[in-house]
Design brief:
Number of helices: 6
Helix content: 10-25%
Number of domains: 3
Distance between the termini: 68 Å
CATH architecture of the largest domain: Roll
CATH class of the largest domain: Alpha Beta
Radius of gyration: 25 Å
Number of strands: 25
Structural class: alpha+beta
Largest sheet: 8 strands, antiparallel
CATH topology of the largest domain: DNA Polymerase III, Chain A, domain 2
CATH superfamily of the largest domain: DNA Polymerase III, subunit A, domain 2
């Protein structure tokens, strides 16, 4: 194998795939990036056996071939090289000679046959969705997943399509985040009803961000029996699905409420952030007191002190007190773009619902804490 490519292209390719590699890889080859020639392209791939990413960059092929190279070493080297052409040559002993001008590195690689196969993307049965919308849907749900591996089903995000719409739902049992992204640009033969691991969605969001995509850029989504694949330009991400049945989330969403309050999103976020500085460490909570024309947000930590902030609001209902985990409140307030939100409540111990005053079909259910 012998190729010539630009430092910028090679760095971009390595950056696209190397982020998923685990520092505690079970096999030496899983710490490597696969480089393989194909026509006038260089294909790069990495996997941790759960998620795989592959991409391609323009390359001058002097000799066909393949090799796997330690990802960290390759990234560190290419990042520090000048923005010039790089020549990469592989000898029979799997030694890689990487040269850029008068700079030469010699490193050891491993053969391709030890590297796991990442399935090809099948275009004929793909859904299509705006890249910007997909990233937004991920950002508005992924923070609500469970980190408890004993509740494996809840460590991913439920992705569903019905009537041409795409929905994403995440819950950890104490809160639930739901978004309907609206009509898909193109719908394939199969309907989606799958649980996608959080790592795959985080990587998808990262790739969309790195490519600086806009609303007109599209992500293609392909579903197989136990895998999901996402394609953006020449980059493909493939992930195993979380096996099992997601709980009936619709039962968690309150069907009615006695009180609805409109609040300024940014003002509430900043107030909760300040007041939570004195919330108890072991049982973080902030109290919300809805009184006529005002909302009082307060917290108290034994032995430290207490904090309180008052917001003027348009509220004319009966006095109502409830308490929430401040992190759970801030998580959702950070991702809502609307300037105003609606908070729907019934009583102190009933779930609260937070949603944008106008705009996207998004809601967040949050369980209260004991006062």
């Amino acid at each position: 194998m012998k190729i010539v490519c630009s430092q910028a292209d090679l760095l971009k390719g390595v950056q696209s795939v190397q982020a998923i590699i685990s520092s505690r890889a079970s096999l030496p080859v899983l710490s490597n990036i696969l480089l393989e020639t194909q026509k006038d392209k260089l294909k790069l791939a990495a996997t941790d056996l759960e998620v795989g990413i592959k991409t391609e960059i323009p390359t001058e092929i002097l000799k066909e071939g393949s090799i796997t190279i330690p990802a960290k070493i390759l990234f560190d080297i290419v990042r520090e090289l000048p923005n010039q052409d790089i020549q990469l040559e592989v000898t029979n002993e799997y030694k890689i000679i990487l040269s850029c001008g008068k700079i030469i590195f010699k490193i050891m690689g491993l053969p391709k046959d030890e590297f796991p196969i990442i399935p090809d993307f099948k275009e004929d049965n793909a859904f299509t969705i705006s890249a910007g919308l997909l990233k937004e849907m991920i950002q508005k749900t992924i923070f609500a997943i469970s980190n408890d591996e004993t509740r494996y089903i809840l460590t991913g995000v439920l992705v569903q399509t019905s009537n041409g719409n795409m929905e994403m739902i995440a819950t950890d049992g104490r809160r639930l985040s739901y978004i309907n992204g609206g009509k898909l640009d193109k719908q394939g033969k199969n309907k989606l009803d799958v649980i996608v691991p959080s790592k795959a969605l985080r990587e998808a969001s990262r790739l969309i961000g790195e490519k600086e995509t806009g609303d007109k850029d599209l992500v293609k989504i392909e579903l197989t029996e136990n895998q999901i694949a996402l394609k953006l330009d020449s980059t493909v991400l493939v992930s195993r699905l979380v096996e099992g049945k997601f709980p009936n989330y619709k039962q968690v969403i309150p069907k009615d409420h006695s009180t609805s309050v409109t609040l300024d999103t940014e003002k509430l976020l900043n107030a909760v952030k300040r007041v939570s500085l004195l919330s108890p460490e072991k049982a973080e909570s902030v109290k919300l007191q809805f009184i006529k024309e005002k909302l009082i947000i307060s917290s108290m930590a034994q032995g430290l002190g207490e904090a309180q902030e008052e917001l003027e609001i348009d509220y004319k209902g009966a006095n109502l007190e409830t308490a929430y985990n401040p992190k759970y409140l801030m998580d959702v307030l950070k991702v809502i773009k609307a300037g105003q939100i609606e908070v729907e409540l019934s009583n102190a111990m009933s779930p609260g619902v937070i949603k944008p005053k106008s705009g996207e079909e998004y809601l967040y259910v949050i369980m209260p804490m004991r006062l």
